[in-house]
TrEMBL record, chain A:
Lineage: Bacteria, Bacillati, Actinomycetota, Actinomycetes, Streptosporangiales
MF GO annotations: maltose binding
Similarity annotation: Belongs to the bacterial solute-binding protein 1 family.
One of the GO BP terms on file: maltose transport
InterPro entries: SBP
Species: Sphaerisporangium album
Protein name per its UniProtKB record: Extracellular solute-binding protein
Length: 421, 274
């Protein structure tokens, strides 16, 4: 359901960079953040943009902040994910940005490079409070821009009832995963496992690369896709299709209905699926599935970490109030209460100790997984690179290309695009 | 003879009925889907009639979104855009076809050229313009780029070119001014194509998404499709809710089409003939 990147992205970015190239320092040495005056009482109105369910729920959630900070008024505008990226880039070009905005964590590199985003004031925000993997999403070229707001990471979902019938426990390693899926198949799951090989499949391939100790960027920051680890990751995913443990013939839209039916008995996905499964699976389905950490490869079980960040724009007329608002949203107590509101997983580690988070055992699996999770480098061109990976993964999955060819092709295309830094 | 005629008519109706199933099918499915639960929409095999009719999707839609305000916004924008296109596109077309005008061909060429520029390329330049005019977050900002459309000029020009010049000449000889000729003689002859243009621009404006979403800065300025899009999450979609929203969005367009159908068919048919 990753529909927020549009085909027009490259064009827009190019246009935007051209437009903002003049008048703003956007290259050269790392930017120095300005401190926020914490002694003065911040006042003013704040325009805040947020997407999806966050955009809907935030408007009433901020009442608590307004009550604690008389003099600050927060206006939340919900923005559709489909248009959010275009809207934010256009607002930067037109210099009509809000004070604070939520952004997809992979957009950070691109937006920070426009020079419109305010570096995070170190005297207000403590980076040690966040998951290091989440903090990585706001670091661009040595400077932090904004804070991670909530995180999501991918784990293994499986049908508990089918696994029990087959006498299986969730797999701990790559090899165990195959025998696990074989067992599920024997117990009635005709399609075995659901593997994503279309849009967004990069989120399943990158963990496989990392789990062998691979990396998609070298020490010099250049792309390193043509590696044995990438080839192995692609080959490993393909082997599921070849051995009939996953299907590349069914319509991808038949998932998750196929999981409810039991044709598919396992898949990798993020925390939002818990609520989705419980809601759409029908009565009693909540007890039929469970989650487990990513099975480990030769170098560990690193997962993908995504989510959303919060940024303050330099054009904000109430900068102090804006940062205070961001600080409030990243307070452990606020984060835990935000979890109960929209089920967003806290990016702040301390929030995970609170009862709201420890009540559901399945949520704790995500908390564990977050300790071993990585993000793609936050570079301006990431969305383009992701699209390249998606296309090549699909070709391999459909047998139109070999893992070796695909790794070479990703490398060549990624080199042509560059990192944009 | 009569039997053969009946047979032909029956065959024709059968073919039309099959066509209708294909055209109307998705609409009917949308309408029925808006009364199903999300679980049922995702169910496999899919159901056609709801197993259990629920109105919860509409209740949720009206609760989560200010349907009245956003519909009103959509209507205001659509009325301005349609009225402006009807007036100005036909004025341009009149100048291009009925006035001695040396640069006419060049101007028309530029208009055609405009049709080939994808709207997305213009998004940022247009927004920068609108924002620096101080029109971000206003109706004026939302309607400005759509007030005169190249397609409208093209459509009107093709139609007006077929109106005999003698009519205009005769009126000039009788001493009519150009505005009088335009409003009293040429425009009334353009009714079918005006209906077509009205419907096309109405649909364009009513369905417009990216531009109003970028210009509107507060949810009070959102149009229907923009408000609807803000309801879907990044990873999860509530199909029932969206289908209910789609019904709310398409109903006015369908009604308009029913009322203008006669003109619409006539307009498209004649605009295509040259």
């Amino acid at each position: 359901m990753k529909t927020y990147t549009t085909g027009s992205l490259a064009l827009l970015t190019a246009g935007l960079l051209l437009l903002t190239a003049c008048g703003r320092a956007s290259d050269g040495a790392a930017e120095k953040p300005k401190d926020v005056d914490t002694s003065a009482k911040a006042t003013g109105t704040l325009a805040v943009w947020a997407m999806g369910s966050e955009g809907e729920a935030l408007a009433s959630f901020v009442k608590k902040f307004e009550a604690a900070n008389p003099g600050i008024k927060v206006t939340v505008t919900p923005v559709g994910w489909d248009v959010a990226h275009d809207k934010i880039t256009a607002s930067i070009a037109g210099r009509s940005t809000p004070d604070v905005s939520m952004i997809g964590s992979t957009w950070m590199g691109e937006l920070a490079k426009t020079g419109a985003v305010d570096p995070t004031p170190g005297n207000l925000i403590d980076k040690a409070a966040f998951f290091p993997s989440a903090w990585d999403t706001v670091m661009v070229d040595g400077t932090a821009y904004g804070v991670p707001w909530y995180v999501e990471t991918r784990v293994l979902y499986y049908r508990k009832d089918i696994a029990a019938k087959a006498g299986l426990t969730p797999p701990a390693t790559w090899d165990e995963t195959k025998s696990f899926v074989k067992g599920l198949k024997k117990a009635g799951a005709a399609q075995g496992m659901n593997l994503n090989y279309t849009t967004g499949s990069w989120q399943e391939i990158l963990p496989l690369i990392w789990q062998q100790g691979g990396s998609i960027t070298g020490p010099d920051g250049k792309w390193t896709f043509d590696t044995p680890e990438t080839v192995k990751a692609l080959a490993w995913q393909r082997s599921y299709f070849e051995e009939g443990l996953a299907s590349n013939k069914v319509d991808p839209a038949s998932f998750p209905a196929s999981f409810f039916k039991g044709d598919v008995a396992a898949y990798f996905s993020g925390p939002w699926m818990i609520a989705g499964m419980e809601k759409d699976g029908g009565p009693g389905f909540a007890g039929k599935f469970d989650v487990a950490p990513y099975p480990k490869g030769s170098a560990g079980g690193t997962s993908f970490v995504g989510g959303s960040d919060l940024v303050v724009f330099k054009d904000s007329r109430n900068r102090d109030a804006a940062w205070k608002f961001v600080q409030w949203l990243s307070d452990p107590e606020t984060q835990a209460s935000w979890y109960t509101t929209v089920r967003d997983l806290p990016s702040v580690q301390a929030a995970w100790q609170r009862p709201e988070l420890t009540a559901d055992k399945r949520v704790a699996v995500f908390g564990e997984q977050l300790k071993d999770a990585r993000t793609p480098p936050p570079v301006p061109t990431w969305d383009q690179i992701a699209k390249v990976i998606d296309q090549e993964v699909e070709k391999v999955a459909l047998g139109k290309s070999t893992p070796e060819e695909a790794a070479k092709s990703i490398q060549a295309q990624a080199d042509a695009v560059g990192t944009g830094l | 003879m009569r039997n053969a005629g009946r047979l032909r008519a029956a065959g024709l109706y059968a073919a039309l009925a099959i066509g209708l199933v294909f055209v109307a099918g998705p609409f009917v499915w949308t309408l029925l889907g808006s009364f199903k639960s999300d679980a049922e929409i995702r169910q496999e095999p899919p159901t056609f009639l709801p197993l259990r009719w629920i109105t919860g999707n509409y209740a949720a839609l009206f609760e989560r979104m200010d349907v009245v305000t956003v519909t009103l916004n959509s209507a205001v924008v659509a009325v301005i855009v349609v009225a402006s296109n009807l007036l100005f596109c036909s004025m341009v077309a009149y100048a291009l076809t009925k006035l001695p005008f040396a640069a006419g061909r060049a101007v028309f060429g530029l208009v055609l050229l405009q049709m080939m520029v994808p709207a997305i390329v213009l998004l940022i330049p247009q927004f920068v313009t609108v924002a620096s005019l101080g029109l971000a977050d206003t109706y004026a900002g939302i309607v400005l780029p759509g007030l005169v459309t190249p397609l409208g000029v093209f459509l009107m020009r093709q139609f007006m070119a077929d109106i005999p010049d003698e009519l205009v000449h005769a009126a000039r000889v009788d001493g009519s001014g150009e505005f009088r000729i335009f409003f009293r003689i040429v425009l009334p002859l353009c009714k079918p194509v005006l209906a077509t243009l009205g419907l096309i621009t109405f649909m364009g404006s009513w369905n417009a998404f990216v531009w109003p979403a970028v210009v509107a800065q507060r949810k009070e300025m959102y149009t229907l499709p923009v408000a609807l899009a803000s309801l879907s999450g990044r990873e999860t979609v509530h199909y029932g809710l969206l289908l209910a929203g789609v019904i709310v969005v398409i109903t006015p367009v369908l009604l308009l089409f029913v009322f203008l159908q006669r003109y619409f068919v006539q307009g498209v048919a004649t605009a295509g003939l040259k």
